[in-house]
UniProtKB/TrEMBL annotation:
Residues 1-29 are annotated as: Disordered. Binds to RNA polymerase (RNAP), stimulating transcription from principal, but not alternative sigma factor promoters. This is RNA polymerase-binding protein RbpA. The keyword Metal-binding does not apply.
Length: 111
């Protein structure tokens, strides 16, 4: 029965054209290494910008071999209340406001 089965093509999964004369895009192999010494090789296009840090399949961060580790590129500086206050007021304005509020409280407690 198996010798009578119909043979067919998988639609859309394979090209009918040959690959002769087709040149692949230029690529470069880049090597990364984790803190535990695990080596990871990644292929990039020749003109691609190479990231300094790569996350491995195990979830660890690998650093570019012969490269420098960036100073936490994903970590943004978290603005504090003081930073936001300084965006709206100068230090002199804040000192004046403080003096006014202290005078107000002293007046309230004196009664």
């Amino acid at each position: 029965m198996s010798d009578r089965s119909l043979r067919g093509m998988r639609l859309g999964s394979q090209s009918m054209e040959t690959e002769s004369g087709v040149e692949p895009a230029p690529r470069q192999r880049v090597e990364y290494r984790t803190a535990e010494g695990e080596s990871v090789s990644v292929m990039f296009a020749a003109e691609a910008e190479i990231p300094p840090v790569w996350t491995t399949k195990t979830g660890q961060e690998a650093i570019l071999v012969n490269g420098e580790k960036p100073e936490n590129p994903n970590e943004k500086h978290q603005r504090s209340h003081w930073d936001m206050l300084l965006e709206r007021r100068s230090v002199e304005e804040l000192e004046e406001t403080l003096k006014q509020r202290l005078a107000f409280y002293e007046e309230q407690h004196a009664l």
